[in-house]
Amino acid sequence: TGASLRAAAEMLDNGANIDQARINLFETKSRAEILLLGRALNSMCFSDDGRAAWMTLTYDELKQIEALDINPEGIINYARSVEGVEIALLFREVEPNMIKIGFRSKPGIDVAELARRFGGGGHKQAAGARQKGNLSEVMSLVLEAAKDVMA
């Protein structure tokens, strides 16, 4: 917004170090965040037609790398960025038998509708839900429902 740009200009005029701000905001990650990204990318799967991609993070994995309190929502964008992928999902077991599901899509697919089916909500291209149950079972249910939304 204009207000944001004016605030940024004022900070620069008052000596803010833009390089340090950029490094802190965009180029600095904790070890746990990088390990989390690696685990998520390693778990990435694709639908047969390549239009859907999903990643999984189990509770045990999160606990092992001390990442239970890290919010990995940006990770899902790696799946959405794959050529041909229209819908991306991130299944994260935040506690035993409690799955947090992130949904992202490219224009034309309403993932908020998909999230609502599982008690969640959000925007057309970014939504989320929580589902109680076994990770494999929740994934199967959600991926089957995703096919309907993509049809």
Outline type? globular
Distance between the termini: 37 Å
Could you give the order of strands across the largest sheet? 1-2-3-4-6-5
Strand-residue proportion: 15-25%
SS-based class: alpha+beta
Low-confidence stretches are: none
Secondary structure tally, helices: 7
Helix content: 40-55%
Number of strands: 6
Tell me the series of helices and strands, N- to C-terminal.
HHHEEHHEEHEEH
Mean pLDDT: 94
- Please summarize the sheet with the most strands: 6 strands, mixed
Q: In angstroms, what is the radius of gyration? A: 18 Å
Give a verbal description of the structure.
The protein has 151 residues and is of the alpha+beta class. Helix content is 44%, strand content 23%. The chain has a 6-stranded mixed β-sheet. The model has no long low-confidence stretch (mean pLDDT 94).
Summarize the structure.
With 151 residues, the chain is α+β, with helices and mostly antiparallel strands.
Primary descriptors:
6-stranded mixed beta sheet, 6 strands, about 45% helix
Topology:
Layout: H1 2-13, H2 18-26, H3 31-42, E1 45-46, E2 52-57, H4 59-64, H5 76-80, E3 87-95, E4 98-105, H6 111-116, E5 121-123, E6 126-132, H7 135-150
Parallel strand pairs: 2-3
Antiparallel strand pairs: 1-2, 3-4, 4-6, 5-6
